């Protein structure tokens, strides 16, 4: 049940205050949590991976990169999951775990990184939802009247309405099933239409289109998109919702995510690239050909699924705000409802403004992976595990963890530079509030 209010806060010896949560914890089965994770992996973002990952990397780099990134991501997430009850304390937030292991400064740094990560993901979802809405309109009327910034504004309003109605992550409940249906619809449509186009098209060019320095930067940027595809940056917050035994159940959820959960993503990503080669659009449904109503249905379901998926990645911010201001109890109580309208609405309004200002979806994937997913999921996870378990680890295990820390630190720096360069280039090509 939910916890909050009063003064039940825990304070570690180093001065890190850990507030009880106003949201529900320990109520969900491992299967529901697995669907939360799988919803994130197979969100409408998958409609971009053919263009943002496969095109810059080609067949060999793309396939090997996706498989390796999945294996590394499973390993890193398992490390975090196994630390959930470290020291006899259940750490229901990423920053709580970092604060327990390192102290107050790490608590603040981790929360800052996580906030940036989730803000960027949320902004990307609003861009994605707006792009899907515009694509659905364009199927019937390609007159340029409904521009992308308008669609992004509509998407932001719908996301805010959904956030107001769903108080916390566990309350998604049946909406996860609805999201799965939406996912099935747009993935099957994109898959079938891509295969049909591929079978009826002449030979495609699969050569990586960039050359020289530009190729290096796009390759590094695509590597950031690889890790973005698999990781939430909020595993402890998701694990907090799972029933006991939390570690065992979370591992079940992770194995589901990284086996069965990856099949739809792989199918549509590879099929899209096979059908269109290096001409694949960054939003796959802009490449496919088929009946207007079918394409419209795919885009509408992608729009609606993005609204639901965004709620998952916004939930840590909602939890922080609700806990900070003591918003607990009945969801429809006047105080609680008005708080969600004002605060969540304001938060998503700012997300929407940034999304409309810089609507470069692929660039947002790269930048999010670079500046937050790499540090949170790989660097911090490996070092936290090393710090917590170093007296029980062999020399080879310690060496492996440090190798990961150093490698992903260098990758994070390189990917950040590459992503900022991509955004700078696109910002010169397109005006602010671009209709792309």
Major sheet characteristics:
2 strands, antiparallel
**What separation lies between the terminal Cα atoms?**
45 Å
Helix content: over 70%
| Strand element count | 2
Radius of gyration over C-alpha positions, nearest whole angstrom:
21 Å
Number of helices: 14
Helix-strand pattern, N to C? EEHHHHHHHHHHHHHH
Second CATH tier, the architecture: Up-down Bundle
Shape verdict: globular
GO biological process, one term: amino acid transmembrane transport
Subcellular location: Cell membrane; Endomembrane system
Membrane topology: Multi-pass membrane protein
Transmembrane segments: 29-47, 59-83, 115-136, 148-169, 175-195, 254-276, 296-321, 341-361, 367-388, 400-424
What does this entry show, briefly?
This protein is mostly helical and 436 residues long. The chain contains 14 helices and two strands; from the N terminus they run E-E-H-H-H-H-H-H-H-H-H-H-H-H-H-H. One of its GO terms (biological process) is amino acid transmembrane transport.
